[in-house]
Amino acid sequence: MKKTISIILAVLLTLSIIPASVLMTSAATKCPKGHTYVQHYCATCREFEKGFTGMAKRDGVWQYVTNGKADNYYTGLAKNQYGWWYLTNGKIDYKYVGMAKNQYAWWYVKNGTIDFTYTGMAQNRYGWWYMKNGKLYTKYTGMAPGPEDWMYVTNGKLDTSYTGMAKNQYGWWYISKGRLNRNFTGMAKNRYGWWYLTKGGIDYSYTGIGENDYGNWYIKNGKLDTSYTGKYLDSQNNVWTITKGKAVNNGKLSITVKDTDKDLYLELNASRNVSVKVSNPGSYDTVVAVSDNKKVAECQFTSGLLFTAYTLKITLTGAGKTTVTVYFKNHPDIKQVIKVSSIGNAYPEDYSAMDLVKEQRNGNNKGKISSACSAFYIGSALETNTAKLNIKAKTTEMSLLAIMANDLDADSTYNNDIKVAVNSYNTIASSESAIDEVLTWKAGETNMKLLTIIAKELDIAGKYTSQIDAADDDYYARVGRGDDGEGLNIAADEARMKLLKIVAHLLDDGDKLSAQIEKTDDEYYKLTGDAQVYERCLEANTASLELWKIIAGEVSAKASDVSKLDVYYNKFINLTSSEEDAEKLNAQANSTSLRYIEYIAGIIDD
Q1: Which end of the chain, N or C, is surrounded by fewer C-beta atoms within 10 Å?
Q2: First-to-last C-alpha distance (Å) of the chain
């Protein structure tokens, strides 16, 4: 008995693994005329199998048959020995992609056949559904990828009633009516707490204030921080008092920053005690702050300023870029950082205030000398236009030379000439039609006149009278010819150089520096007449700077004073090896010369 059962099972097992095509072939039937049906179609009679309903193949094309007749209206799933297919109007639709249903379930169809590899969302006339391995899966709840973006599914179906947070393999997201909302920015909650989201996803970089239906809260690294108690200043200058994460708005700190070409203004919305600090040690040496109640204070960058002010004017003396930080005393843990990128000088030199004259000299013109140079140093720290900076340097030089000329003019022989020269320039400078080019060479001309007066006063024995008179002849010859501003600028600079050489010789005790003085203009005269205007002026200004250096050493009683000034001279010399812009170097040469001129003026003022 047992043997019989074993034989039967073996036979059944063998039949179960025989290919379907073999079984169908073995089960092939005859048409009424005795021909064999192949895949339910008789090619000889050209007829489908009588009474057959399903997929049959005629002339190499599969189509749907109902009761032995071609059914050109059938649309839906059907099966043959190769699998399940989607038919449209009775024939396989190889272009169809979407959901379709048979007697077992809803399926995902791609290229006309069920795609058992597909997992994701698909749509039918009843809505969007979650498909798993090609079949509708109603046990799934969560996020699923849709054709455009992620969706939220409840029991296999898109849940348009769901709004809140949900998770996929990429993190936590905000869902609106069943779809991922990448436009959402704000607070939302999941089972782990409240979070801050940006563009639909948790923003772990966000620290600040967030708002939900229960109020405002302090967010740290994307999550509500109920442990924090303190003050917070947001990007809109709102001051928040935070108690265990709960935030209360105490109003705005309204600060208006005006970055002019001279100063930085902070306009506060109310009277407050503020502390101002400037960062970047080495870039700015001094901060001068003036409040609207006219209090003035000066401090180094490592210190702070305390004012009660509606408007705070901050003058930065130095070069480069910096950051100004305003601390509000009534909220000591709150600070407003103002980054100033445009303010600063165009030249890589440290324009710290040179206090040698102010501290060591006590002459009648001490205040004039100090104010003239301070104005230039502050202006140069803020000026980015080299042409304007050159004018400022030459204007300041003019003021100092006028003081020196007055001090040397013991019997007032040249007193009126000095006034005429300076007033002539000032009249042009105040004109609305004055332009940079005109002001530059007119300032040079005025300085040339003042140097002529100084040289004549020093030339007691008349040794250099003819050379002094001849020094500016070339300049006035060009004026008579109607030369342009550039030509006059070169001529004025060259005349200044010649006169300075004479002054240096007059002050050279024992002619010990004669060779050095004569050498100063050698490089200038190597230039041809075709050299660019800025290059020729640069050589002349460089020679003049070296002459001022020599003169400062000769008139100084303290070598240590001159060595302090030489630091700036060396910076300029080093700069000439790397800086290709002659216009910028011109401004640098002029400003460096002013340090020596200021010092010399102070000594003569004694």
Answers
A1: N
A2: 140
* Closest alpha carbon to 403 in 362, 454, 358: 454
Cα–Cα distance between 502 and 84 in angstroms, integer?
A: 110
Q: What's the full length of the chain, in residues? A: 606
What are phi and psi for residue 299, nearest 5 degrees? -150, 160
Sign of CA dihedral 60, 62, 66, 69: negative
Query: 87-124 pLDDT, tens per residue?
Result: 999 899 999 999 999 999 999 999 999 999 999 999 99
Check if the beta carbon of residue 350 is closer than 8 Å to that of residue 410. Answer: no
Please say if the pLDDT value at position 246 is more than 50.
yes
Q: How confident is the model at residue 25 (pLDDT cuts 50, 70, 90)?
A: very low
H or E segment and range at residue 201? strand 201-202
CA dist., res. 159 & res. 171, Å (int):
20
Going 119 to 121 to 122 to 126, the CA torsion angle's sign is positive
The helix/strand/coil state of 321 is coil
Question: Where do the H-state alpha helices sit in 176-255?
Answer: none
Local structure of residue 30 (DSSP, 8 states): B
Q: Longest Cα pair distance anywhere in the chain, in angstroms?
A: 153
Taking 80 as the threshold, does the pLDDT of residue 480 lie above it? Answer: no
Q: How many CA atoms lie within 13 A of 163 on its CB side?
A: 6
* Mean pLDDT on 445-460: 88
Buried b (16+ CB within 10 A) or exposed e, 372-390: bbbebbbbbbbbeebebbb
- Is the pLDDT at 36 greater than 70? The verdict is yes
Kindly write down the DSSP assignment for every residue of 331-391, as one continuous string: STT-EEEEEESS-S-SSSS------HHHHH---TTHHHHHHHHHHHHHHHHH---HHHHHH
327-350 pLDDT per residue, tens: 554 444 555 554 443 333 322 233
CA-based Rg of the chain, rounded to a whole angstrom?
Answer: 47
Residue 374 tokens read as: 């301070």
Contact status, residue 358 vs residue 368, Cβ threshold 8 Å: no
**Cβ atoms of residues 265 and 311 within 8 Å:** yes
What one-letter code names the amino acid at 26? S
